[in-house]
Amino acid sequence: MQTRLTIPRPDDWHLHLRDGAMLAGIAPESARHFARAIIMPNLVPPVVTGAQAAAYRDRILAVTGSGFTPLMTLYLTEATDPADVVAAHAAGIITAVKLYPAGATTNSASGVRDFDRVRGVLDAMADAGIPLLCHGEVTDPEIDIFDREAVFIERVLDPIRRATPGLRVVMEHITTSDAVAYVQSQPADLGATITTHHLVINRNHILVGGIKPHYYCLPVAKRETHRQALLKAAISGDPRFFLGTDSAPHADDAKESACGCAGCFTATNTLSVLAQVFDDAGALDRLEGFVSRHGPAFYGLPVNDTTLILEKTDSPVTYPARIDTGAGPVTVFDPGFPLYWQVTQEI
Ligand code: NCD
Ligand code: ZN
Question: Which residues contact 46 (CB under 8 A, 6 or more apart)?
Fold first, then answer.
């Protein structure tokens, strides 16, 4: 039985760090284990210009210190200036641009309604090799929430990719077998992130035996068959699938509410949960690719030269149930099964 795993330090290719007191409280949870993270721009107001991204990056670094590298993104709006995007990328301020269909999720009111209006930006991004990160859900009220990802692929993603040859695209936090199949059917300029929690929960976890607000996130978890498809993709070794935790903290009073916010906070125990999931699936040897190698390969970045050691313990490892922040307590994701793997060392 394998009880020790040494891997290059992992990266998180989709992370919400928020701002102010919440940023100060939760950023250390990611910086402890991850070397780099793609930082989501859905602040209030969103990060829409290169100058705002640079200022936000500095606020993150002020909390984490230089041992953690925030890879910044811009929030695509119908008013985004292609020249600003290209200049911010050339200056090393941003790594990617994020597409939220308007109204799709937390703080996405400024997102895109008419995709023809962002054509100039997408063309400029394809030319400059800047990846587009997609929140892959349509927002049409007549489309059932469980179908919104599959419909997005057909109505939005595939047309955008056909109309913009050479554009590198990441389908973020995929939740369906449809998304897995679509990625597998396409060339390597399309990648997908998979979250920790979507490898663990299906929609029953949210709804059976009482509503569980801390399992509610967007895209919402689907049927068990979809979870199994995601797990199969994550452990397959296919480099187009890599970790993006989508760790998305909200204070408990905003989650445990009559209109609770979407988002699971997994930063604290993500690597323990993933090691357990991969171990239980008999795929520990594939964890390194998923958390440390496939993401850098997609983004054209070096694999981290520092390492992290995970060890399997005899009795379950425990984590705090919540992290106290100046913006209120944030509940840590409960996978619902014991965790025997823990990070013991970083070199
Ligand atoms: C995210 C958030 O809270 O910012 N919520 C979530 O459920 N994932 C937004 C997002 O990534 O959709
Ligand atoms: Zn997210």
Answer: 75, 77, 107, 110
User: Is 123 designated active site?
Assistant: no
**Percent share of the chain, pLDDT over 70:** 100
DSSP H or E segment with residue 234? helix 224-234
Q: Which domains does the chain have, with CATH numbers?
A: 4-346 (3.20.20.140)
Report the C-alpha gap between 138 and 56 in whole angstroms: 28
CA distance 226 to 129: 31
Residue 104 has pLDDT above 80, yes or no: no
**What is the spatial distance between Cα 40 and Cα 72, in angstroms, rounded to a whole number?**
7
Ligand 1 center from residue 218 Cα (angstroms): 6
DSSP of 146-163, one letter per residue?
GGHHHHHIIIIIHHHHHH
Across residues 62-66, what is the average pLDDT? 97
Distance (Å, whole) CA 215 – CA 203: 9
The single residue of 11, 246, 279, 334 carrying the catalytic annotation is: 246
Mean pLDDT of 295-314: 98
Query: How far apart are the C-alpha atoms of 332 and 330, rounded to whole Å?
Result: 6
Whether 77 has a pLDDT exceeding 80, the answer reads yes
How many C-alpha atoms does 2 have within 13 Å on its Cβ side? 14
Look up residue 327 and give its DSSP letter. T
From its phi and psi, is residue 263 left (phi > 0), alpha (psi between -120 and 50) or beta?
A: left
- Find the 216 Cα to ligand 2 centroid distance in Å: 12
249 prior amide bond cis, ω within 30: no
Ligand 1 neighbourhood includes 98 CB (under 6 angstroms): no
110 pLDDT tier (thresholds 50, 70, 90): confident
Whether 94 and 61 have beta carbons less than 8 Å apart is answered as no
Beta strands in 195-237 (DSSP E): none
